[in-house]
Amino acid sequence: MKIDILTLFPEMFQSVFNESIVKRAVDSNLVEINIHNIRDYSLDPHHKVDDTPYGGGEGMVLMCQPIFDLVKTLRTKDSYVILLTPDGVCYQQKIAYQLATYKHLIIICGHYEGFDERIRTICDLELSIGDYILTGGELASMVIVDSIVRLVPGVIKEESHLKESFNNNLLDYPQYTKPRVYEGLSVPEVLLSGDHKKIKEYREQESLKRTKERRPDLLEE
Ligand code: ADE
């Protein structure tokens, strides 16, 4: 999979993508990530990327030109263009699964003061990572890329993500590791029993119980 990210703050990505599973996926050529500085594509002599809004008002608005040009350069028949904005569709694990099947994602990080409405016309999907306002789409794009990359075949063992929260609309069951008792807190007996059928039943029950308590909305879906 290839991922192109369009941003005004390319340096924000360096540490995040140079760690852990994303780094491993890139190093093993399962994923290619390119960060593009929108400013480098501005045709303005001063590399201007934003301007005042028509009709007046506060703040500066991200201009069409650098983004349109960059997307035109990068887009192929396999590309899927995503715009990050708080008024997009709310991101969820099922969208991560869908996006992980694409060959090429182009992700445009919106600007906290706004962007020219016409930028929406070149996008296939607008995404928000939650009902709060970030200073830009950069952190949102990192969240989305992280959650997609781990689903790309070969990046982590498939069994690892088939059992985790949000699959089948259920939260994860509780997990324990050594020691058996820590500061008076014991591991449930059933997990020490070696009875795989009982362990499976216990985990299913706990998963359902936790979902009912914490996220009943998932069960209604
Ligand atoms: N840009 C600013 N806030 C955002 C959010 N919540 N999700 C995606 N992009 C954003």
SSE blueprint:
Blueprint: E1 2-7, H1 13-17, H2 20-27, E2 32-37, E3 50-51, E4 61-62, H3 64-74, E5 79-90, H4 93-99, E6 104-109, E7 125-128, H5 138-149, H6 158-162, E8 181-182, E9 185-186, H7 196-214, H8 216-220
Parallel strand pairs: 1-2, 1-6, 5-6, 5-7
Antiparallel strand pairs: 3-4, 8-9
Bound molecules: adenine.
Residues 84-86, 110, 128-130, 132-134, 136-137, 140 line the site of adenine.
Distance between the termini: 30 Å
The gross shape turns out to be elongated
Helix and strand run:
EHHEEEHEHEEHHEEHH
Strand order of the largest sheet: 2-1-6-5-7
Q: Bin the helical content.
A: 25-40%
Small ligands present? adenine
How many individual helices? 8
Pick out the low-confidence regions: none
Q: What oligomeric state do these chains adopt?
A: single chain
Overall pLDDT score:
95
Main beta sheet: strand number and arrangement? 5 strands, parallel
Structure overview:
This protein has a five-stranded parallel sheet, with helices on both faces. It has a two-stranded antiparallel sheet with strand order 3-4. A two-stranded antiparallel sheet has the order 8-9. The chain has helices spanning 13-17, 20-27, 64-74, 93-99, 138-149, 158-162, 196-214, 216-220, and strands at residues 2-7, 32-37, 50-51, 61-62, 79-90, 104-109, 125-128, 181-182, 185-186. It is elongated, with a radius of gyration of 22 Å. The longest helix is centred in the C-terminal third of the chain and has 19 residues, at 196-214. The mean pLDDT is 95. β8 and β9 form a beta hairpin. With 221 residues, it is an alpha/beta fold. It contains eight helices and nine strands. It starts with a strand and ends with a helix. Adenine binds at residues 84-86, 110, 128-130, 132-134, 136-137, 140.
